[in-house]
Amino acid sequence: MSERPRGAGKNSFSLIDGGRLFAELHLERGGVLLDLACGPGAYSLEAARRFPAGLLVRAFDLAPDLVDQLRQQAAEEGLANITAAVADIGRHLPLTDASGDFCLLAMVLHDLAADNAEATALREVRRVLRPGGVLAAVEFKKLPPPPGPPLDVRLAPAELETLLAGHGFRLEKTVDAGASAYFSIFRPGGA
């Protein structure tokens, strides 16, 4: 995905129950959270605020201005447990193998699938997740907008499960995250 998606930079975090997402991921146990296509970093910032002692948040986005915005906000808040960098997650993640405990793809898989960039992105996610790692995919419900992208690019939970199963991930659960969103938790197959 070499171009910035139409909705990039908008804050979808306000549309979901963030406390429920973080509880289902068990971020309280600490580790490394990879927030991919982080946009302005609302998910990253909230995770860093909630778990300042044991969680390192590594955020990546295609748009340099959004990465700068996240860096500035983290610095203003004194959040030392966030790093942010520019990266095209549809091509390559500048991370070593098995370097993350949790991976978050919030409101991005529909864009990756629409751009036929999901195969590379999901291969990279598998590469950077540690054994036993967790992938959380937050997506818009397949309901007419607004908010969110056009209905024809949205992924229903069954479509998301099929997409990720085709790339070696198995579904653990799908959770209602609010009026317009849900999230699903996956693990690499066999983990």
Task: Give an account of the 3D structure.
The chain has 191 residues and is α/β, with parallel strands linked by helices. It has a single domain, classed as Rossmann fold, CATH 3.40.50. Helices cover 30% and strands 28% of the residues. The protein has a 7-stranded mixed sheet with strand order 3-2-1-4-5-7-6, with helices on both faces. Strand 1, helix 2 and strand 2 form a beta-alpha-beta unit. The chain is globular. The mean pLDDT is 93.
How would you describe this structure in keywords?
alpha/beta, Rossmann fold, seven-stranded mixed sheet, 6 helices, 7 strands, 28% strand
Compile the SSE list and pairings:
Blueprint: H1 18-25, E1 31-36, H2 42-50, E2 55-61, H3 64-77, E3 82-86, E4 100-106, H4 109-114, H5 118-128, E5 129-140, H6 157-165, E6 169-176, E7 181-188
Parallel strand pairs: 1-2, 1-4, 2-3, 4-5
Antiparallel strand pairs: 5-7, 6-7
